[in-house]
Design brief:
- The complex is a heterodimer.
- In chain A, 15% of the residues lie in helices and 34% in strands.
- By secondary structure, chain A is of the alpha+beta class.
- The longest helix of chain A has 13 residues.
- Chain A is elongated.
- By secondary structure, chain B is mainly β.
- Chain B is globular.
- The model of chain B has no long low-confidence stretch (mean pLDDT 96).
- Classes of the chains: A alpha+beta, B mainly beta.
- β1 of chain A pairs parallel with β10 of chain B.
Amino acid sequence: VVIKLFEIPIETSQMPLYTVNRRDRALYIGTAADKPADLDGHVEPGSLFFESDTAKVYIYTGNANNGWVDITAVAAAGVLAADSRG
Amino acid sequence: VSISPSDLIAYAALNQPEDETSPAGGAIDPDTRVVFTDLAANDKVEVLSSAIADTTQHITVRGRATNGSLAQETVLLNGTTPVVLNANTFERIESAALDADTAGTVTVRRQGGGATIGTIPPGERGFTRLFIKAFSAAAPKDYYAKVFLKNAHATLSLLDAVVKENADPTGRITFALQNTINDSEAPVNRLTAPVNVTAFGNSDITLLAATGTADLAAGSAIGVWLKLSLDADNAPIKSTYTIELDGNSV
């Protein structure tokens, strides 16, 4: 019998930059440089990010890789709708 | 001459993504192995060849510095004289890669003639760790990485070949075999499971059960997928996984 073992090195890391209660959704505020890489995978889906230097609004989908969707237009429409109701 | 253990070699797949968007797997990379011995302690490394003539090739050694950051350094080989990579003290080694074939066997080892980390035979280009830059997140994640177990004997088949899990120190890896020999399945990224494979598990898988062929022919390789299952916010891992290829030989 021929037997050959292959011991293969592996690694992973953890990015505990933010400790988030998984039941919580949060509103994050920062510049474009703060989003999204540092927050990806560490915030609850449904969290919002207000990009202060561009006045854009994003919602987090839960995707750990670039999971932020620009909803600025939706947010603006919501503001207009609220305004129209007086 | 019968097949010996040295005829059985574990190679990487051509795609070794370090992100979560690039293709994974693919065909065998016959230039890059996946077996080496990591540093036992933080240290600088040195490289040398077994051939005096190897003075024109560069080697890039990549690893993590003592602060955790990825670091790499490229040096020119100086034949059989060790060349120390002075810029970095490494905490672990990720890979080593030559830019051209060498006449001799290249050794990467701890400085001062220390323990060998890995060797690169003539005609090959290096070795690599698996799951580089994989990371846990707020939700559980599964990563997939592919290796090939090759029968490098010139003429003989490895009879009744079987792949086994030998050691899984993290308890987080299962494996599966491709359904065809010398395959090239390449999922869209390393978070996507391969399709043309056996079920993932820890149990032995015969080549017959996976492919319908019992023997691994000379020069052929079977693709083996490793599935790394990370819990939510899984602690960092620096470990190994040991896979085993058994068979008989006339």
